[in-house]
Design a protein that fits this description.
- With about 100 residues, this protein is mostly beta strands.
- A hairpin with a 6-residue loop joins strand 2 and strand 3.
- The protein starts with 7 loop residues before the first strand and ends in a 14-residue tail after the last strand.
- It has one domain.
- It contains no helices and six strands.
- Helix content is about 0%, strand content about 40%.
Length: about 100
Amino acid sequence: MSDVRREVVASQVQEILNYFGKCPMCGESASARRITAQFTDGRVLSEDIAECLGYCGWKGAADSAFLAGAPPVLSHGHKNFQAPDHALPIVASGD
């Protein structure tokens, strides 16, 4: 295994709309999101993460047993791009 450093160049978070899970810690409802990251070496990785909607703060891997149908129904999501190191800082206007 090489020690090549990879950096995220783009990421996207999408809500899994047909996920109806329960928190394994407190039993409250849970929601889930698919997080996708693209790296500088071109690899793209996705992971489905669930989180408690109650008070305990649990987060973990989303259990596909809680999907209402298959495959997951995803929201359009929000795509984020990493700024290059040489980019100018963003300054808020109106100060």
